[in-house]
Structure formats: structure tokens, C-alpha cells
Amino acid sequence: MKLPVLLIAFNRPHLTSVVLDSIMSYEPSVLYIAVDGPRHEMDNIAINEFKEILSKRNFNFKLVTLFRKENLGCRLAVSRAIDWFFEHEDMGIILEDDCLPNKSFYRFMELMLIKYNKNENIGIISGNNFFYNKVHLPYSYYSTVYTHIWGWGTWKRAWLGYQSSGISEERIEEIVNSKFPNKVERCFWIENVKLANSGKLDTWDLQWGFFNWEKNRINIMPCKNLVKNIGFGFDATHTKVENSKLNQIETNELDFPLIDPPNLIPNPLLEYYTRRIFVKISFLERIKNYILSKMEKII
């Protein structure tokens, strides 16, 4: 079953064109393209260049576009694009203009979104795995409390109720403190969710992660990385550091048929590796998880 895809873009037509090629090879049931409005004339030139690229493509599926006249910024442009998408669809794949999936990503999304469609304990299906070369997983996917959105899918039922602002600071502290045992990590999430919620940090994804924590959901991640972020550089919104370790992570094709895990309980070792992406880990915790990793290899 082919799924609908939402492509969210702005002012990087050549990157967007590469991601568009990937989507066209998949041939979704419907392709929705949402583009934020220009801030200045250079943005306008870039957006018109992307319109020209679109006009030269032959689509074998339905195409629906939304080109905004005014600039909303990252937080509102992305969240309102997803709102718009789910006004028309019940589930689907969401890609930003710098997230390039491999071929197995689309099949993984199809299988997982359909399989867990009615499971309200699951918030998203992610295409990311940032440490697949460090931990060998015997199963095709696993569960996590973290929300990775460099190529992902979800359902209308999961998105409904999302807020990009207006969350009380007390509520943020309550949920984060109840979710994470590591003090450094709690401080990291509380600070950054508050900044995003207040608009001081122009993003939408921290609030999305918080919303899933608030609903006590878990998320699905593949045992291999299925999406590469090709947008690192000076013109990126958030991924400006070109020599970032995350920029060096390549993709690997997933094997089918999928091997289901015996349960959907997050693995502490895998959560530890994800936590290391965001916060500095103490020496004692590093030792503890090093021992745990050796024990899992023996088992």
C-alpha cells in the first residue's frame, strides 16, 4: 500500500530536488509539498527556482502544493504544514528538504504505519538510527522514548492536540522530571523545550517530542539508519556544523521480511546511546553502560 508523503521545503531548491527525486521513485499515493514564504528577495528567487523544477517534472501521482505568501519561520511553517497534511490524510510520511531516504525507508514506513495504526501507545515511526554501527540488534526495529524526525511517519490520531506554544512551564518540568532519571538530561530538555515553547528557539520538534512524552508514548526506530541528512552547512536552519558526527552517518538498506522484537519496552543501553547525542554523560554512567554492552554481547 503506497502512502501519502509530505515534503516540507523553503529556500534550498537543489537539495529539495534531490529529495523530490527519491519521493518520485517511490510514487506515493499523493505528494503534498509545503513551502514557507520568502523573507527577502533571495528567498523569493530560490522558491521560484524550485517552482521551475516542479514544472519540468512529470508526476505519475497526485500532487498538491502549498506555497505560502508570508514567511512563518521554522516553528509555524513546519507544524502548520503537518496540520494541513492531516486535514486530508490519516497517516503518512513526512520529509524535510534535507532528509534523503534510502529505498528501504519507504517500505519500512508502509509496514510500520499500517501495523501500529491502532496502537495509541506509539507516536512516530522514525527512519533514523544514529548508532547502528555500535550496537548489533537481532531485530529489525526497537522502541524508544526519543523522537527522531529526519525522515519519519505518523498518524493523524497521534498529531491531534500538538501545541507549538502555550504549554505551561510547570507542566514541562513535571513531565520531563517524571520521564528521565538523568539530572543533566532533565535540565537539557526542560531548558530547550521551554525555549522552543516561548518562541525564543524557532523550532517545532522539541514540542513534538514533549507531546509524545506527555502522552506516555514510545516511538519506533529501525535497526539501521535509513535517512541521511544532506543539509549540513551555513544555509541550514539548525544543522550548520558541517563536521558534526551526525553529518557522517550514512544509510544502510534494511532487510526484509522484518523481524519483530519480542516486546516494545525501550532498551536501556540503546537509550543511553541516544542520550549521548544530546548531553554529556558522566564517567560512571559510561562505565556502567560499557559493562552492560559487554554483557549483552555475551548473552
From TrEMBL:
<protein>
    <recommendedName>
        <fullName>Glycosyltransferase family 2 protein</fullName>
    </recommendedName>
</protein>
<dbReference type="InterPro" id="IPR029044">
    <property type="entry name" value="Nucleotide-diphossugar_trans"/>
</dbReference>
